[in-house]
Structures are given as structure tokens and as C-alpha cells.
């Protein structure tokens, strides 16, 4: 069985690479989601994760390898985050490293889709033949589909 | 040639064969296409297969005192850095000057220089650069002048002691110069260079730096005590480091070599870390600690020592020494200055480790021309040139590239050419200071 049989999430909410991180964050909070697909004129670009936005609030010296191991000594640190928080309005979605995810299409077998979802721990895009985003496949969607099949 | 090797390949002269391998090895190292440790080990193997050296002679060429000193110190540092002591000192230093931007720059430079004098430079900047970025971030000022000064301070500080920089470790080991010899002869000029380098840095950046009172209050609210993540580890590490440094100072009078002292210190610190743990936890912790030793550097040294032993045995280095003496007309002052300036310029563009490894036997063969005191002065010229030269360009020392990596991540990349336009003249300035120092003290 392939993904053709699965009903995808209705109308994925896309943001453009030029959307500010601030707006992307507001959208995520409104929609109660942790990630948003990024599309450029309907074409799949990548996925922006709420963790990337949280990372932007941290001092650069604590991100990545060899950085500061903990920030307890900074104390409160809220003013430090507040400065970075304001910067979110000027930073476009394209400035963070978008998740490099495998793409699916209607002919992807369910088992393969399940494996990829399990490995990447994020919803994966399902594209049409010409690379346009058709919808997002989440672990919930797939599991809901499987459980309904098992029930029959 | 006095040492004609019998089994050289195809009856070719060992001098020609060994020089070819040497030049090829160094040329590939310079391209940086293949990891330097692999290239050096391949070159070492070729020296043996080509019959220039046999295995016993190759092993004899490997200076195990240098290798043990480096490895031992790397183990000690790998354990100590987990205690958070470096972060503590850097934050404390910032608060001592009330987070004043210029005071902060001076303090971070001094802290970097002192740590670099006692530890490996790369480790020092790996520990100082993140704290520097955090503080400049909080003060909302550009980290560039700070990172630039950290680079300079690490190379200048490294010049000051026997254990500060790999070239000094090699020179000290080969020339039987003690920790105290380095301290008395190089630390004063390193301190002078550091102080005088701050003048142009002040004129270029320092006088324009400013931070708001609010942002400074933010830094003053940092609690450096929270950096100490493991107080027991800190005590153990400081105890062993104090013991090791005391060992270095007394080494000569005890008739001991620094390699033994560093290795023993490393073993002692490991013992203190694991003695109350189960066998399995012990091997896990020790395995991880040994994993943090920079094996690339260690194997690079091993390979280079063999390659240099090859051309030395074939007589190339003695020949080079004669040429240098001939060229300088046997004039001691000119020889000392040639070594200083050539070392500085070359070390700015290529790795100073292979250069120093080659120059050591060259200077040793000058023993027939100059007195032992004069030879000692040549060692100081070599050390000053090779260590300070590292400041000339971004690729002059590994620590420079580590700092550049942090700067890139902070969105303030240090580019090759703009860095060189500032750094190369400053480096030449430090060599002028060294020249005057050599003149006043030794020539």
C-alpha cells in the first residue's frame, strides 16, 4: 500500500523563506504546531522547527560544539534573551538552517514512510510529481491510518 | 657525505633520496589536502623503505621527551577543563574591570596569555573564545577586536615558557634547556611584546569601544562561582597542575626530564579521578580522557621526527648549517637575526612545527662554529621567531583558526586578508622588539 491511500493533513500552512522568524513563531503558537513547512511559490523548500527559533534566543557561544557547556553563571539572563527576541523580527526564516528532510510522494510505500518518519522524528512533506507540496505526513496521521485499517 | 647509507634505493645517493622524500612530504603538508599526520607518517615510512634509515634509527629520531610532555599535558588539560575553572577566571576578570570594554579587552588578553603560557594554545582559545563571545554579546559590542587580541595573546603567551608552544617543547627537549631557562630568557620579552602590542590595538579599536551602563550591569550580574561545576575535580586538578609546574621548575636540579613529569602528573590525576570507582566506570572514564588527546598532533610529530632524522642522517642539515654560516660569514649577530626573521616570516605562512623540527639539527650542527652560549642565543631566536611568527596570518597557528571558527559562528567572520593586513605588521613589530631584546641581552 502506498501513501495514495492516506488522507493527509488538510491545507498545510506554509510560510515563505522571507517570512520573519517572529511571524513564523506566532503562527506556530496559534496553530499549536512545532514546525511549519517552508514553500517558495508552492514549491517545497524545507521545514522550520520551533527549536531553531528557540536556538536564536541563546548566546551564539552556547550553540554548537565546543561552546559553553552551561549558562548557569549568567544568572537571570532574561535581558540577554530579550535583545535576541527583538532580532527575530528582522531575521527571515531562510536565515536558520532548515531541516534537511527526505521528501515523499504518492507512490512511497507505507513501510518506507513509517521508517523515514521514525528516523527523522518530524512530519515529512508529500510532493506532487512537479515538486509542489501536496501535504504533510505526520506520525499521527500515519498511525491513525494504520489503526483504522487494523480495526477493519 | 660521512654517513652514506648502504641500502639506499637503486644505488641513488641517500642525500638525493632523502631530500626528495622530505620536500614531497613538506609540499603535501603545505597544500593541506591530506591530513598532516597521515602525510608525515607516510613520509616516515618512505624514509625507511628507501633505505635512508633503518627502523631502529627512525625510532631513535623520535623525541619521546617531546611526545610524552605533549601527551601528558593534553591529558591533564582534558580533565581540568571539565571543572569550569577557565570560565571562572574569564568571568572574574571581566568583573574586576567592571565590564569596561577596554579593560575587558586587556583582561581577556592577559588571561589568554597566562593560560597559553601554561597550556596548549588551542585548548586555551577553545575555552576563552566562547566566554569572550558571551560577554561581548551581553555588552552588545563587536567581538572582533576581542577575538583578534585573543589570537595575539595566545601566541605571545605561548612563547613565554617551555610548555607554552610545541616549538618550545621541541627546542627545550633537543637543546636540554630547562623550564627555568625559558622562563628567564623568553618570559620577559613575551611580557614586553604583549604590553607593547596593546598600544596599536588601543589606537585602532580600544579608544572607540563603549558599552551602556545597563549592559555592563548585565555582565556584573554574572556569577562566576556557578561556573565551577565540579569542586572536587577542581581541587584535584589544581593540586596536580601545581605539582607538575613545581616539577618543571625543579626538574633540572632533580635530574629529571619534563616528559616524565608531565606523564606522571597525568597518571596521578587519572588516579585521583577513578580510585573510588568500579572497574567498568574507570575504563570508561579513562578511555574517554585518552580519546581527548590530540592524536593528530602526536602522530604528526612522530612522522616528522623520522623524516627529519632521514635528511639529518644523509647530511643535508649539516650542509644547510654550513651554508647558513658561510652566507652570514660566520658572523654570530647576523646568524641570530637571520634565524629570528626567517623563522618569523615562514611561521606566519606555514606550520611552525615542521620548520622547527628541521631547524633544530641545523642549529645543533653550528656547534662547531659558535660557543655554547651563542648556540643558546640561537635557540631563543628560533623560539621567538617560530612562536611569534604564528600571529602573522590566520593560518600561522592552529589557535588562530579555532578563533576564526568561533567568529564565523558569531556572524563576525575573521577573513584571511583583512586579518593579515593588521596582523602581519603587528607581528613584524613583535619581531623588531625581539631583535632589540636579543641585541641588548645577548649580542
Written overview of the protein:
The complex is a heterodimer of chains A (152) and B (443). Chain A is an alpha+beta fold. Chain A has one domain: Roll (CBS-domain). Chain A has five helices and five strands. In chain A, the strands form two sheets. A three-stranded mixed β-sheet of chain A has the order 3-4-5. In chain A, strand 4 and strand 5 form a beta hairpin. Chain A is elongated, with a radius of gyration of 18 Å. Chain B has 22 helices and no strands. Chain B has one domain. The N terminus of chain B is likely disordered. Chain B is mainly alpha-helical and 443 residues long. In chain B, helix 1 runs antiparallel to helix 2. Chains A and B meet through helix 3 of A and helix 7 of B.
Mean pLDDT of chain B: 90
Number of helices of chain A: 5
Could you name the ranges of chain A where pLDDT drops below 50 across 5 or more consecutive residues?
Answer: none
Flag low-confidence runs of chain B: 1-6
Query: Taking Cα atoms only, what radius of gyration of chain B do you get, to the nearest Å?
Result: 23 Å
N-end to C-end Cα span of chain A: 16 Å
Largest interface, with Cβ-Cβ < 8 Å?
Answer: A-B, 20 and 27 residues
**What is the chains' assembly state?**
heterodimer
**Distance between the terminal alpha carbons of chain B, to the nearest Å?**
33 Å
Portion of residues within helices of chain A: 25-40%
Beta-strand content of chain A: 15-25%
| Sheet with most strands: strand arrangement of chain A | 3-4-5
Largest sheet of chain A: 3 strands, mixed
Shape of chain B: globular
Amino acid at each position: 500500500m502506498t501513501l495514495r491511500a492516506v488522507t493527509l493533513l488538510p491545507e498545510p500552512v506554509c510560510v515563505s523563506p522571507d517570512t520573519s522568524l517572529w511571524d513564523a513563531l506566532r503562527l506556530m503558537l496559534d496553530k499549536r504546531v512545532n514546525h511549519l513547512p517552508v514553500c517558495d511559490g508552492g514549491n517545497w523548500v524545507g521545514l522550520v522547527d520551533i527549536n531553531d527559533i528557540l536556538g536564536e534566543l541563546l548566546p551564539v557561544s552556547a550553540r554548537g560544539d565546543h561552546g559553553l557547556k552551561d549558562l548557569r553563571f549568567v544568572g537571570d539572563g532574561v535581558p540577554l534573551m530579550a535583545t535576541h527576541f527583538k532580532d527575530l523580527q528582522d531575521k527571515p526564516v531562510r536565515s536558520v538552517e532548515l531541516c534537511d528532510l527526505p521528501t515523499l510522494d504518492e507512490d512511497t510505500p507505507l513501510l518506507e514512510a513509517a521508517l523515514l518518519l521514525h528516523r527523522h522524528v518530524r512530519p515529512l512533506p508529500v510532493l506532487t510529481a512537479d515538486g509542489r507540496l501536496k501535504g504533510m505526513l505526520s506520525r499521527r496521521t500515519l498511525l491513525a491510518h494504520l489503526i483504522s485499517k487494523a480495526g477493519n | 657525505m660521512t654517513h652514506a647509507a648502504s641500502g639506499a634505493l637503486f644505488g641513488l645517493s641517500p642525500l638525493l633520496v632523502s631530500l626528495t622524500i622530505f620536500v614531497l612530504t613538506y609540499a603535501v603538508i603545505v597544500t593541506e589536502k591530506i591530513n598532516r599526520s597521515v602525510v608525515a607518517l607516510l613520509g616516515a615510512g618512505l624514509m625507511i623503505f628507501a633505505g635512508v634509515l633503518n627502523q631502529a634509527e627512525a625510532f631513535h629520531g623520535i623525541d619521546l621527551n617531546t611526545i610524552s610532555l605533549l601527551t601528558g599535558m593534553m591529558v591533564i588539560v582534558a580533565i581540568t577543563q571539565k571543572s569550569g575553572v577557565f570560565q571562572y577566571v574569564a568571568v572574574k576578570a571581566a568583573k574586576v574591570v567592571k565590564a569596561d570594554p577596554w579593560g575587558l579587552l586587556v583582561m581577556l588578553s592577559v588571561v589568554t596569555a597566562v593560560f597559553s603560557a601554561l597550556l596548549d594554545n588551542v585548548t586555551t582559545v577553545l575555552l576563552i573564545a566562547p566566554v569572550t563571545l558571551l560577554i561581548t554579546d551581553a555588552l552588545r559590542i563587536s567581538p572582533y577586536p576581542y577575538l583578534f587580541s585573543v589570537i595575539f595573546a595566545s601566541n605571545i603567551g605561548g612563547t613565554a615558557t617551555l610548555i607554552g608552544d610545541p616549538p618550545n617543547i621541541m627546542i627545550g627537549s633537543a637543546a636540554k634547556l630547562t623550564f627555568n631557562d625559558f622562563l628567564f630568557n623568553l618570559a620577559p620579552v613575551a611580557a614586553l611584546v604583549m604590553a607593547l602590542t596593546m598600544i596599536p590595538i588601543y589606537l585602532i579599536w580600544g579608544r572607540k569601544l563603549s558599552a551602556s551602563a545597563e549592559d555592563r550591569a548585565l555582565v556584573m550580574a554574572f556569577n562566576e562561582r556557578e561556573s565551577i561545576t565540579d569542586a572536587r575535580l577542581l581541587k584535584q586538578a589544581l593540586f596536580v597542575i601545581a605539582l607538575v609546574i613545581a616539577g618543571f621548575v625543579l626538574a633540572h636540579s632533580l635530574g629529571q626530564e619534563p616528559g616524565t613529569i608531565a606523564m606522571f602528573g597525568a597518571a596521578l590525576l587519572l588516579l585521583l579521578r577513578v580510585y573510588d570507582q568500579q572497574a567498568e566506570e574507570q575504563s570508561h572514564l579513562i578511555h574517554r580522557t585518552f580519546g581527548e588527546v590530540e592524536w593528530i598532533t602526536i602522530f604528526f610529530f612522530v612522522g616528522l621526527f623520522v623524516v627529519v632524522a632521514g635528511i639529518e642522517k644523509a647530511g643535508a642539515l649539516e650542509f644547510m648549517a654550513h651554508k647558513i654560516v658561510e652566507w652570514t660569514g660566520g658572523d654570530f649577530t647576523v646568524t641570530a637575526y637571520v634565524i629570528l626573521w626567517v623563522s618569523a616570516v615562514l611561521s606566519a605562512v606555514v606550520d611552525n612545527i615542521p620548520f622547527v623540527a628541521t631547524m633544530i639539527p641545523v642549529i645543533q650542527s653550528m656547534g662547531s662554529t659558535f660557543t655554547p652560549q651563542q648556540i643558546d642565543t640561537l635557540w631563543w631566536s628560533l623560539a621567538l621567531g617560530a612562536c611569534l611568527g604564528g600571529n602573522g596570518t590566520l593560518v600561522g597557528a592552529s589557535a588562530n583558526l579555532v578563533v576564526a571558527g568561533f567568529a564565523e559562528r558569531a556572524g563576525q567572520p575573521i577573513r584571511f586578508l583583512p586579518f593579515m593586513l593588521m596582523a602581519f605588521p603587528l607581528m613584524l613589530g613583535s619581531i623588531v622588539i625581539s631583535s632589540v631584546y636579543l641585541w641588548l641581552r645577548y649580542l
